[in-house]
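Example 3.2
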Amino acid sequence: MKYKQAKQVSGVRRRGRVRIEVVAELAGVSAMTVSRVLSSPEKVSEKTREKVWQVINETGYVPNYSAKNLASNTSRIVAVVVPTLQNSIFADMVEGLASELELHGYQLLLGNSDYSAEREFTLVKEFISKQPVGIVLTGFTHLKETIDLIHHSDITVTETWNSLPPNFGKRVGFSNYDACYQMVKHLVGRNYQKIGFVSAPVHGNDRARARRQGFIDAMSDSGLGVEASWLKESDFSFSNGAALLQAFWREENRPEVIFFANDVLAAGAVFECQRMGLSIPADIGIVGFDDLDIASQCSPQLTTVRVPTFQIGRIAARQLLGMKDMEDDIVDLSFDIVQRQSSR
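Structure, written as tokens:
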């Protein structure tokens, strides 16, 4: 049944959070009755429900479900913050997280930071107010305010997607540095010397910084120079991959192969090569990172780095839930170099 907006109750609308006791007093009922109206309305008469909802509408009262969970120790929520919902690697991680949580009767609360440390702080603050069992964060770069808030909250946190020292004691991921270092070594072993590299924007992104540094160090250790114009940054999209391929191709001293730190960019470059009539890998090699589905479906198939996206989520869930097989707070997973047709 829908309830109409009640007439203004004098003195009811107030600043600050309205307590359930205030609603009960104004409605002339007990706090328990207000709770029943919200949780089990069928147990309360229609007349009483309407009276309570009139006061709720006027006061702006919001039920404090987190306090209820804390008091009864029944919170079965795990929160996760990802930097984007447009990249399927994070969707795979969330799927692994959700599937493991579901097995144990927990629900997942999802937030998208849009690669913003400030947005991550806001999400973490909101999530903590709901008293989750734990929080999964992507990466290790956070505002000081976020780190302090988590330390003061006494909530278990697992950081993911890298192998840096964790801020909160738990991590599951892989070495982005090693993954890019080894891909460069793989390409050098296949007689490539002029290698271009495209990462995500490195500001505030420890994964992107590690991948870029792994590339630079591998080139240096191999005795190879890197033109400044061969190091680029880009958000991940097919159109950006196409534009980057054009930019590399226009250079007089162009690389022999381009290492894109994401398969979406690499696939966009492959599509652009087809439009331009370029042969891969005869005219230019293209390699990616992540081993998304598109890597094995585009033509030619992409050489790439395969990372354990689903496993990251699954293990993070088991860390937070304190599973008996998760004695280690630090879990480093492996990666694989997958050689396909887009590079020689």
